[in-house]
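@channel sequence for tomorrow's demo:
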Amino acid sequence: MELLEKDEEYIISLLEQGKKVEAVAFVKNKTGMNLKEAKDYIDKLILKKNIHLLDKRTQEIEKIELSDKFEIKSLRTNIWWLFLYIIFFIILIFILSSLINILLKELTYKHIFYSIIFIGVIIFNCYNFLRELKSRKYFLTINGKTIKIYYENNEKEVITTDNISQVRFYVIDSGRGIGNKNPTLQIFDSEEKILVEMTIKPIDYYLLKKYFEKYNVMIDNQYKEF
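structure tokens (generated this afternoon):
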């Protein structure tokens, strides 16, 4: 059985959410393909979609004009992701409390090991949650060589490109969905101190990359959109 246009649209929506396994299962059940055939179909669809997005992005990049003055605002992650962080944190706390209760009754290396693992995961989850909250509050105003860093609408730092040792672009989120990788920017001063860390739109990444290249700022580019 062949897939209809609406089926392909549904598959693409799954891929955009990073649900590749569900997309493969849907194709397998809908068409009667075996697992390998369904996976190959999805891989080809991802490639086709990424090529389309790459062409679209290339057209957007070609239209970018670097002006003397512009603003860069942090990309605010969907509020549902923050909600999921909280839910995940509550679940981890519940599991950890259960492990502690077991430890109080029966002290074993196995339960101690699991408790340490869960404490580590909780700390990591809290760190990511707080970092995301902080990142959402930054924005930059750029005027020539001067960059002003604002946090919660208050001016936090002023720096010129001459005093920037390097900038780094990389990906924090997994970006499993099609075209779903958002770059994170870090700016380092002459003493290698991080002045700002903020997630931005892909189109702003290309604008900033062009800006820093203009003023010969060293770029540590670890970002790949596709």
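heads up for whoever presents: Residues 79-133 form one domain.
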